[in-house]
Design brief:
single chain, mainly alpha
């Protein structure tokens, strides 16, 4: 005998996952559309820096799984040239998105409050299992606070844009934004 309550709960959870994926896809597509609006080539120095950053991130993720870059390439069936070309392309797009979002932040006067900065410290602290004060100290010592602030501002610009773009499906029909937003969980005590 199947439990109807369990089934309803699972359907609700799957629905929420789908909606979360949908809202992430909206952000992704918004960022891609934004990159297409930037006609100038991304500055080479920034692209190189972004490639380096992405390579380091990938290496760290692979290392955590005990895999080297060579193994990763063998598993994905990519040769080094194709991998580097793809990395360069995604880095160039990332730089364009970042520059465009910075322009949006300036145009819309989006600023990061100290409270938002503190919330970010708390969020990082939770991920790395430290106290927010430790995280803040470390970032201050490494001179990274302005980078974190800048990152938050860019994220704010993407949120602002995502809220203000008109969403359409493949047929060009407007999509109701509310249908993509997961309902907040209500706790039943």
């Amino acid at each position: 005998e199947r439990d109807p309550e369990l089934r309803a709960d699972l359907e609700k959870r799957f629905g929420m996952v789908k909606k979360m994926q949908a809202s992430m896809a909206v952000q992704q597509k918004t960022a891609e559309a934004l990159a297409e609006l930037v006609e100038e080539d991304a500055p080479e120095a920034l692209v190189s820096q972004e490639m380096q950053q992405r390579l380091e991130d990938l290496a760290m993720r692979l290392q955590a799984q005990g895999v080297g870059i060579e193994q990763y390439l063998a598993q994905t069936g990519q040769n080094q040239e194709a991998f580097v070309a793809e990395l360069r392309e995604s880095a160039a797009q990332g730089v364009k998105v970042d520059l465009a979002l910075r322009a949006v932040a300036v145009a819309e006067d989006l600023e990061v409050t100290d409270d938002e900065l503190e919330a970010e410290y708390a969020s990082v602290a939770e991920r790395v299992g430290q106290k927010p004060a430790q995280v803040r100290k470390q970032l201050e010592r490494n001179g990274q606070v302005s980078a974190v602030r800048s990152d938050l501002r860019t994220r704010k610009a993407l949120d602002w844009l995502t809220e203000h773009v008109e969403l359409v499906d493949e047929g060009g029909n407007t999509i109701d934004r509310a249908s993509l937003v997961p309902e907040p969980e209500t706790s039943e005590d």
